[in-house]
Design brief:
Elements lengths: L40 H18 L6 H15 L8 H13 L4 H15 L6 H11 L1 H10 L7 H18 L1 H8 L6 H6 L14 H21 L2 H4 L3 H23 L11 H14 L4
């Protein structure tokens, strides 16, 4: 869309979806890559597009909280089979669910997180942030595992990986989230313990106190990645096992770059060399025990 509408005609195609202006073209991790089964790739892509477009609504600074929730509610209704259109991503997602005979629960879980993004601007502590990740990140991994008919017993390891990826993305975007949306995922308790507030994110770079907060979050994220390293050997599907192993290694490499760089000063990105190394290392470590 080129403009934000204040009134939303219920039956207009794609009136719901809107770009957020964030780093959409700079994804960190492969989603539904060539490694997974060919027949499942369109369904993985359908879920990712659905979640990404819903996220864009929540991240659009030109929309009010009420308008964001109204648009997200419309996506939910379409997924559940409501008549009319309004979101091609939701319509494709509904068709995917029908074809695969899967529940829409994971779709509704991510929408719950994005409705929260529309109204919640601060997080109290790490546990509060992890509760958010339960709905914003974990359903993505669970959807992919369910498409591959993997056991729910490996959900915890997948949740660790997805939460780690979410926090790493929050740290990459911490300055833009604050400057554009007045939203901060850095725990308020951690900031207060260092004698600072979220206003520190408005500076051109991290001060020592803010750097300690970032490092504390990276320490906790390291623990999540460690908890995710056991995921690949548990995955039965060989292609998905390889993809999971590569993603775990990419998460580790992005964390290391965030350790060395300053995400407040500039966005920290993975490099082509990281993707190559992660592929080689991940594939070598993805042999089932």
């Amino acid at each position: 869309m080129t403009a934000v509408r204040t009134e939303l005609p219920q039956h207009d195609v794609d009136d719901v979806e809107t770009p957020s202006g964030k780093w959409r073209g700079a994804e960190n991790f492969p989603v539904g890559s060539f490694l997974i089964r060919r027949d499942l790739r369109p369904h993985v892509h359908a879920f990712y597009r659905f979640a990404r477009n819903a996220d864009d609504i929540a991240d659009n600074p030109a929309l009010t909280a009420e308008e964001k929730i109204r648009r997200l509610d419309r996506m939910a209704a379409i997924v559940d089979g409501a008549s009319g259109q309004g979101s091609s991503a939701a319509s494709v997602m509904r068709d995917s669910l029908i074809e695969t005979r899967m529940s829409a629960q994971h779709c509704h879980d991510v929408l719950r997180a994005f409705r929260l993004d529309a109204v919640k601007l601060r997080y109290r502590d790490w546990e509060d942030l992890m509760e958010y990740c339960r709905y914003s990140a974990s359903p993505v991994g669970r959807q992919v595992l369910d498409l591959h008919a993997e056991s729910h017993d490996i959900w915890p390891a997948s949740d660790n990986l997805c939460s780690a990826l979410q926090v790493l993305n929050h740290l990459q975007d911490c300055a833009d989230d604050y400057r554009l949306l007045d939203r901060a995922y850095l725990p308020s308790e951690d900031l207060a313990a260092e004698g600072i507030s979220v206003e520190a994110l408005a500076a051109r770079g991290s001060n020592p106190a803010l750097r300690r907060v970032l490092d504390r979050m990276l320490d906790r994220t390291t623990a999540l990645i460690d908890g995710a390293r056991g995921l690949p050997p548990l995955v039965s599907s060989s292609g998905l096992r390889w993809e999971c192993a590569v993603i775990v290694e990419l998460a580790h490499r992005l964390l290391c770059r965030l350790r060395r760089g300053d995400p407040v000063a500039s966005r920290i990105r993975l490099r082509k060399s990281d993707f190559f190394a992660a592929f080689v290392i991940g594939m070598s470590r993805s042999v089932r025990m």
